[in-house]
Design a protein that fits this description.
There is one protein chain. The chain has 207 residues and is α/β, with parallel strands linked by helices. The chain has four helices and 13 strands. The chain has a domain of 139 residues: NagB/RpiA/CoA transferase-like (Rossmann fold), CATH 3.40.50. The C terminus is likely disordered.
Length: 207
């Protein structure tokens, strides 16, 4: 699989995610969120206030983070992405009413409506936990996105901050190796329905 191009791998993963068994995924969403909460608790000892960046599922088969967001709001500032008309992604802080403030944005992406939420403010006094979507991940923490470059650009903006990047997926989205470009940034954690792990270059069970 390491020889596959990004385009081929994206196509394969989109097809797989679009055909998930909904009965299986209903339980698996909860399991992923539970493991994410465990990871968040592990980084809680790091300095300053926790800032958690999450997302709302927009594409077939994506993990639903609603349970995790609800728990994170109890102890951290939580943010969701918004993509503007220029295709630039920014994050806004949400509160307990966040689920009633979502609207379709560009490309059908579900996001906070205009006027809701305060823009994220970045400084060096807190810990930034970036829960990151992807079509595939490998044992070294490399990530395959959908090709828009939104998260690559975001990571460049916060490169100087204390950040913990957590890639979220289903276990069947783990592959042996992902083709990478020089600007691609590795994850610090990978989390799926079977648990979470720190990338080390190997992962038992990768197909």
């Amino acid at each position: 699989m390491s020889s596959q191009s990004k385009k081929e791998l994206r196509r394969e993963m989109k097809l797989m995610m679009a055909n998930l068994d909904t009965r299986w995924s209903q339980k698996a969403h909860i399991e992923v969120c539970a493991h994410l909460i465990e990871i968040l608790n592990q980084v809680s000892a790091q300095r300053g206030k926790k800032h958690v960046f999450a997302w709302v599922p927009c594409f077939p088969g994506e993990v639903d983070l609603a349970m995790f967001i609800g728990e994170a709001l109890k102890t951290a500032n939580v943010y969701l992405p918004r993509v503007d008309g220029s295709n630039v992604m920014s994050f806004v802080r949400i509160s307990d009413d966040w689920s009633s403030q979502l609207v379709p944005g560009g490309r059908g992406i579900i996001q906070p409506r205009e006027g809701y939420g305060e823009p994220a403010f970045y400084d060096d006094t807190g810990t930034y936990v970036v829960v990151t979507p992807g079509l595939a991940f490998d044992g070294s923490g490399r990530r395959l996105g959908r090709g828009g470059g939104h998260y690559d650009q975001f990571f460049e903006r916060i490169v100087s901050l204390a950040s913990v990047k957590v890639g979220v997926c289903w276990s069947m989205q783990l592959v042996r190796a992902i083709p990478v470009d020089s600007h691609d940034i590795n994850m610090d954690w990978i989390c799926h329905e079977k648990g979470g792990f720190r990338p080390s270059g190997e992962y038992d069970g990768i197909s």
